[in-house]
UniProtKB/TrEMBL annotation:
Keywords per UniProt: CBS domain, Repeat
The organism's taxonomic lineage, starting at the top: Eukaryota, Viridiplantae, Streptophyta, Embryophyta, Tracheophyta
Residue ranges of every copy of the CBS domain listed in the record: 57-123, 258-319, 344-402
Name of the molecule in the record: CBS domain-containing protein
Length: 418
């Protein structure tokens, strides 16, 4: 289903995002005429500091304490409907710099993958890990060997109920799994960095969110997500700089980037854990579930859906195996009972190659989703377009732009498993 929205300026362009769009418009109007539209946009975004970006909603400006349990962290993320949050070191001194104040960013996916990784055969250097896990999980470990397809197929709701009620899950602290964090502590922007830097990090450099730190306070000032950028773009419909780009058809802009034969997917009769395993391996945020014997997608499983394995394990109780199809069915039923909606789980959101970028942005923003599937006239999958793909078509990285920007960014810890 593809919604169509007319592109007229929003209610007097009064939202903070629209006012930001007007700031780009003012810069656009005075740019050198010989510059191409792409060069003009790059120059506009380079001229605006990231401090001008509207603050994240208060429900998303969440921090998790390092002594919180895995169970508590999962509940906080689920309650606030966010995928990740910075972890504050409770032992850091009051006047600590931001790099000492935070130990990283914890994600739903990081928690689950860390749990799954504990089931892998122990290395010679840590022979006691499997034994410790078995003891801590009160026998749950017998079913923990499910990274292979065969055992994954037999994993049922009872397993997740046992896991989430185990002392291991309740007592392991967030700081104990810091090896699964993506950054240690994380890559952040200063308030004086430019919009262009932020947009490139969210697109070319594959960051889903970018923390903005106040060096004076030593705290996170804002967290800018890919979704927040797409919302800003949606609010700019009707402005000249946006229309010159947004009215182009997807095919004109080279979208979708990924062709059907390269699309990562899972079939409905495969174990749902295979979907999460693929997302981890390929470092992608979502996977379409394909109908048996066809090329049609019947649903989508994303990293966000990992929460349903940990926050509502009872919904799989009646399934002998949690296949991708059973997972979708159980989650849909759960959402209906709780009067919640999740477009890509409850029904596929699709588009065609001849839709415009503006239509796509407005649909993604209104549905609050991170990807949309491109289909042909028969409903067969032709590709996927993500928020990152869209942002990457808005700007380009000038030669040598980042210079030594990444110097001093702490690498992933040696024991990182994600």
């Amino acid at each position: 289903m593809m919604g169509t929205m007319e592109g007229s300026p929003r209610s007097g362009l009064s939202s903070p995002e629209a006012k930001l769009g007007m700031r780009v418009e003012d810069l656009w109007d005075i740019m050198e005429p010989q510059l191409s539209p792409t060069e003009k946009l790059n120059a506009c975004f380079e001229s605006i500091p990231v401090s001008a970006f509207p603050p994240a909603p208060s429900n998303q400006a969440i921090e998790i304490k390092s002594d919180a349990s895995l169970g508590e962290a999962v509940q906080i993320l689920a309650q606030h409907k966010i995928l990740s949050a910075p972890v504050v070191d409770v032992d850091a001194p009051e006047d600590a710099s931001w790099i000492d104040r935070y130990i990283g960013i914890v994600e739903f996916a990081g928690i689950v993958f860390w749990l799954l990784c504990q089931s892998e055969p122990p290395s010679p250097r840590s022979p006691s890990s499997a034994t410790a896990l078995a003891a801590a999980t009160n026998g749950v470990n017998a079913e923990f060997e499910f990274l292979g397809a065969e055992s994954a197929a037999s994993t049922n709701g009872n397993f997740f109920e046992a896991l989430t009620s185990s002392d291991f899950y309740k007592n392991t602290k967030v700081r104990d799994i810091s090896g699964s964090f993506r950054w240690a502590p994380f890559l952040a922007l200063q308030t004086s960095n430019s919009f262009l830097t932020m947009l490139l990090l969210l697109s070319k450099y594959k960051m889903k969110s970018v923390p903005v730190v106040d060096l004076g306070e030593g705290k996170i000032e804002n967290i800018i997500t890919q979704s927040a950028v797409i919302h800003m773009l949606a609010e700019c419909a009707g402005l000249q700089w946006f229309e010159s780009w947004g009215t182009k058809r997807l095919s004109e802009l080279g979208l979708p980037v990924m062709t059907p034969n390269h699309l990562i997917k899972v079939h409905e009769d495969e174990p749902v854990l295979q979907a999460f395993k693929l997302m981890r391996k390929k470092r992608i945020g979502g996977i379409p579930v394909i109908e048996k014997g066809s090329s049609r997608a019947v649903g989508n499983i994303s990293l966000r859906d990992v929460q349903f394995l940990l926050t509502a394990p009872e919904i799989y109780h009646d399934y002998r195996s949690i296949t991708a199809k059973n997972f979708l069915t159980a989650v849909r039923s759960y959402l209906e009972k709780n009067h919640e909606n999740c477009p890509l789980v409850t029904g596929m959101v699709t588009c065609k190659r001849d839709h415009t970028m503006k239509e796509l942005i407005q649909l993604l923003d209104s549905e609050k989703i991170h990807r949309i599937y491109v289909v042909d006239n028969d409903g067969n999958l032709e590709g996927v377009i993500t928020l990152r793909d869209i942002i990457s078509k808005l700007v380009h990285e000038p030669r040598g732009y980042f210079g030594d920007f990444f110097d001093g960014v702490l690498p992933l810890p040696q024991n990182s498993r994600v």
